[in-house]
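in:
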């Protein structure tokens, strides 16, 4: 049985990754999550009774806890999803992002390095640490071109700067200590179990409630959208086939302007849940002040992952967004429980400067 230590496994991408692993009987997951605002045990409800899923509430910065978990369960790999991940929140509270994404990653790397040095033989040879990162570390693209694995880092928000720092630490631990690391930098994810402060679930939630749909600036910001299950498959592929020390970009081949994404969601909801009072739902679109430092365009070149490791996305944006909208329509209780906490759908990231 292969054993995974997954950090941040109650969050959006991590939760989907854990659910995918738990569909296989030959895998055991030790799931470490601090259960901050975006960590939600409801996402894991279907596997909480599975003896191959061990949930531990805790922080990646708690070295004593992480070392104990590594010693007890002897995982074959560590997959690090744990991060503060919302740009708008990083504008309001940058310190939280530095603490989790930079200091937390450092502490985790130290724990894993100690554990790895104590391994012998095949256990040491086959061990992997996979760090999940973002395309936002590369900054903003012009109207043409794509991010590659060799694109210089140019982060423009506290969030992306904190992830860039974490990426550099992971790289340094490989080159300095020999730790067998892999790094993935992904484009914008969407799909089931997405916390509703992010664009797609927020627009779905507000559209169904007949509320104004906030679009930042002129809505022409471009993102490459990646269905979360495609991303999870990519991570598995990199773990199985990736070359130690390498970086792999993961993208969905789905460049869309934010305004176009909002309109697609409105049209789908008009089709699936007609609302005569707010028809068409595009009438709810409201342009609001852009956030500070908003990157204009991201686009990923995933050619290395595709040509060297054989991964390709299975979902187009059209198929993925339909699946996503249907999932939210079919799981209103999940949305209700998530939104009953501290986040109420309010605007975040308005701070021009904050200590």
């Amino acid at each position: 049985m292969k054993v995974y230590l997954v950090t941040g496994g109650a969050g959006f991408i991590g939760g989907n990754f854990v659910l995918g692993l738990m569909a296989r009987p030959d895998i055991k997951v030790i799931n470490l999550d601090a259960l901050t605002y975006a960590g939600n045990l409801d996402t894991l409800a279907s596997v909480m009774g599975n003896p191959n899923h061990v949930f531990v509430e805790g922080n990646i910065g708690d070295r004593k806890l992480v070392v104990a978990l590594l010693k007890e369960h002897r995982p074959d790999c560590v997959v690090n999803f744990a991060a503060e991940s919302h740009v708008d929140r990083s504008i309001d509270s940058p310190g939280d992002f530095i603490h989790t994404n930079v200091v937390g990653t450092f502490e985790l790397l130290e724990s894993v390095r100690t554990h790895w040095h104590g391994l012998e033989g095949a256990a040491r040879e086959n061990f992997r640490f996979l760090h999940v990162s973002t395309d936002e570390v590369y900054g903003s693209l012009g109207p043409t071109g794509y991010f590659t694995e060799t694109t210089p880092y140019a982060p423009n928000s506290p969030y992306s700067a904190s992830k860039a720092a974490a990426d550099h630490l992971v790289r340094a631990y490989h080159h300095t200590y020999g730790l067998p690391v892999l790094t993935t930098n992904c484009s914008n994810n969407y799909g089931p179990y997405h916390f509703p402060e992010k664009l797609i679930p927020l627009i779905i939630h507000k559209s169904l409630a007949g509320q104004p749909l906030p679009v930042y600036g002129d809505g022409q910001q471009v993102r490459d959208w990646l269905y979360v299950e495609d991303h999870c498959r990519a991570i598995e592929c990199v773990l199985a086939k990736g070359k130690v020390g390498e970086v792999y970009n993961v993208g969905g081949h789905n460049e869309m302007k934010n305004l176009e994404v909002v309109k697609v969601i409105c049209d789908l909801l008009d089709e699936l849940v007609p609302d005569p009072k707010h028809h068409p739902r595009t009438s709810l679109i409201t342009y609001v002040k852009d956030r500070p430092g908003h990157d204009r365009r991201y686009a990923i070149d995933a050619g290395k992952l595709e040509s060297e490791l054989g991964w390709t996305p299975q979902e187009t944006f059209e198929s993925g967004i339909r699946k996503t909208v249907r999932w939210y329509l079919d799981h209103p209780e999940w949305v209700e429980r998530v939104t009953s906490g501290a986040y109420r759908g309010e605007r975040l990231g308005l701070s021009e400067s904050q200590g």
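note: The chain is about 40% helix and 15% strand.
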